[in-house]
Amino acid sequence: MPGKLLHAFSRLIENPVFLSTFSAWFSAQFIKTIVELYRTRGLSGREILANLFWKTGGMPSSHSSLVTALTTSVGIVEGLDSVLFVVVLFYGILTVRDALGVRRSAGVQAQLLNQLRTELFQRYGVSLKPVKEVHGHTPAEVSVGVLLGFFIALGICNL
Q: Whole-model pTM?
């Protein structure tokens, strides 16, 4: 049993679709962490790990990088006329649209609600829990993520 599991894991990490998708996501998160380190002039070890694996929002978009690498690599490996390519293409479009529009809009609304919450407390003493501010992406962050994912997939799948 362990031999079969090891063989399956070995095949997974050699798969160009997996490699390009994981590499694009990790590269985007790594770049995002470097940008954050430069912007803040330093982070704790815990903050670096959180940025590297969990942070959303920021430059570049790891969502856009991941789905673009997935779409590109599936297109190269399976063909542009495959059903799988069509599925991941529309999944990618949906994800990029969400990163640009819905999540960004929700983040702006959350910021405004938190400002209103602060004002209500200052003026009337009304205490409310803050709303979590989910940060979407700017068009530049999404564009860089898309380009990163595309070129990583192109490089890995054409080796």
A: 0.78
